[in-house]
Amino acid sequence: MKSLLKFLSEDIGWQRLAIVAVLLGVFLIWYGRRKAKEPVYDTDQLSETAMWGYFLVLIGGWGVLMSYANPSDLFFVVMMVPALLALLAKARGYKSKGNTRPLPDWAAFGFSNALILALIGFGKTFVVEPMQIPSSSMRPGLIVGDFILISKFSYGVRLPFLGETIVPLGKPQRGDVVVFRFPLDTKLNYIKRLVGVPGDTVEYRNKQLTVNGQVVPTAPVGDYMYTDPPRDEIKAVRMKEEMGGVKYETLNVPQLPTLIPMQIQQFPQRDACQYDETGFVCKVPAGHYMMLGDNRDNSNDGRYWGFVPDQLLVGKAFLIWMNLGEFSRIGNRIE
């Protein structure tokens, strides 16, 4: 399964697959119309060929547009398309059943799928969203191949694309594992641990985290080995850490530095941070958060690209629901 996913995503490319899906969908819609022997008057008379064609166009269109906007927001829009088609059909005098004139196949598709796809779209956008862990930056708690669930309402109900809170339900807390849109490219979703809320002074020097002058308790609990291609096997030390009442583990690779100065980028409110060869200290601005990866020496995080604005928050990660390589991880809560 992993080899198939790698072949599809890297060797062929998701973008090309999406284009192929759109083209194949258009062909199936055309073919479904051509082979239809009688006009369609009810939604249940729509041919399966045309139905699958419309589904492929939706999925492929989502894939193509992911190059231009965040996939999570686009998913909501795509899932609303059948509802829009149904509304357009109603405006033109069509019904799901009992039409006295032929029902266009796009209208039949809209009527038959509007409710279920709208519910899926609302659920994924405002309730729970799945995500696959793409890197080792959150080891040891999360590893490559973990499929996780994100609570989309933990930090309030938010408008797609804008990220503005319309129903406040909760606020991010130190120690949360947070999914957010990457500030330097909002088409990408990142996952890190929140270590600083607005107004906090976050310091990380010589691999010791300090928040508002208080040292975050940490202690070694054992060795940890992992392979992160194309690198060789990496030997690290598991560190038990506690923040905001949350206990979790981080990784420390003794031979690696706390900070790689050449990777520090220019970012908004850069003057709120000070760097030297031992680490950094940052004052978190209002309306922003500071994020670090649990794999502290192998993480592209806030120490390099700055702060995460509140409107870029996606949700709180809470559960591993699948890992095709390690079934024993299924059901683990994310701390």
UniProtKB/TrEMBL annotation:
Subcellular location per the Swiss-Prot or TrEMBL entry: Membrane
Membrane topology, from the record: Single-pass type II membrane protein
One Pfam family here: Peptidase_S26
Gene that encodes the chain: lepB
Keywords recorded for this protein, A-Z: Hydrolase, Membrane, Protease, Transmembrane, Transmembrane helix
Transmembrane portions of the chain: 12-31, 51-68, 74-94, 106-127
The name this protein goes by in its record: Signal peptidase I
Entry keyword Hydrolase: yes
InterPro entries: LexA/Signal_pep-like_sf (IPR036286), Pept_S26A_signal_pept_1 (IPR000223), Pept_S26A_signal_pept_1_CS (IPR019758), Pept_S26A_signal_pept_1_Lys-AS (IPR019757), Peptidase_S26 (IPR019533)
Protein family per UniProt: Belongs to the peptidase S26 family.
UniProt key word Membrane: yes
One example GO MF annotation: signal peptidase activity
Domain Peptidase S26: from-to ranges: 114-322
Reaction catalysis annotation: Cleavage of hydrophobic, N-terminal signal or leader sequences from secreted and periplasmic proteins
